[in-house]
Amino acid sequence: MGAFFLKGLAFGFVLAATVGPMWVLCLRRTLSAGRLAGFASGMGIAVADALYGAVAAFGLTALSTFLLAQQFWLALGGSGFLLWLGARTLLAKPTPLEARVDAPSPRGLAAGFLSTLGLTLANPPTILAFAAIFAAIGVGAQSRYGAAALVVLGVFLGSALWWVILAAAAGALRARLGPRTMRAINMVSGLTILGFACWQLARLV
Are 53 and 152 in contact (CB under 8 A)? Predict the structure, then answer.
């Protein structure tokens, strides 16, 4: 049983560490607003990964069928939000060094968590990827609930571990970055997020 947990842990960590729009978004939020902001955003992704992992591991066919049937509209909404987020990031003004604090408001943390949760859930084909990986490691709809639960828990903790590492590393670097460097990071992050949004829209078309 412990092997299932370790496999889920490794998969969740690798999945979170893979560079994508959410990776860029969490990095930029950490550099801009501090460790807690980056971690809260990362936890939104970890929770979404765990939810989709649970759908695949426990064989929730009706729910996965419904989500996959709505994937066009979910992806369209997610792409639109990424376009807005990318443009906002691109135009954001860097906070001066002396004005930076690492204590965002509870409302800001909640907004960061919910935004990444929603964006990650806006990609239902993730369920298919989880189902394929879980089948490869011996977990599927016919598996015992205990094994499935351990894999899902591993996925969540592995993903959360990566976001802790990223938030800690980027947070330590944050205090050394001047406004000019932060402006460059905002531009690169904004263009990267816009690029991912355009790529996703092209796939939909």
Answer: yes
Q: Quick check: 48 and 120 in contact, CB under 8 A? A: yes
Whether residue 94 has pLDDT greater than 60: yes
Distance CA 164, CA 75 (A): 27
What whole-number distance in Å separates Cα of residue 44 and Cα of residue 121?
A: 10
- Sorted by sequence, the CB contacts under 8 Å of residue 131 that are 6+ apart come out as 56, 140
The alpha helices in the chain, defined as continuous H runs, are 2-17, 21-33, 35-57, 61-69, 71-91, 106-121, 126-136, 145-174, 179-204
pLDDT tens track for 162-204: 999 999 988 888 877 777 878 888 888 888 888 888 887 887 7
Among 75, 43, 61, CA closest to 156: 43
First to last CA, the chain: 43
Amino acid at position 164, single letter? V
How confident is the model over 12-68, as pLDDT tens digits?
898 888 878 888 889 888 888 888 988 999 999 999 888 888 887 776 555 666 666
What type of residue sits at position 171?
G
Q: How far apart are CA 167 and CA 158, in angstroms?
A: 14
Instruction: Reduce the DSSP state of residue 112 to 3 states and report it.
Output: helix
Residue type, 53: G
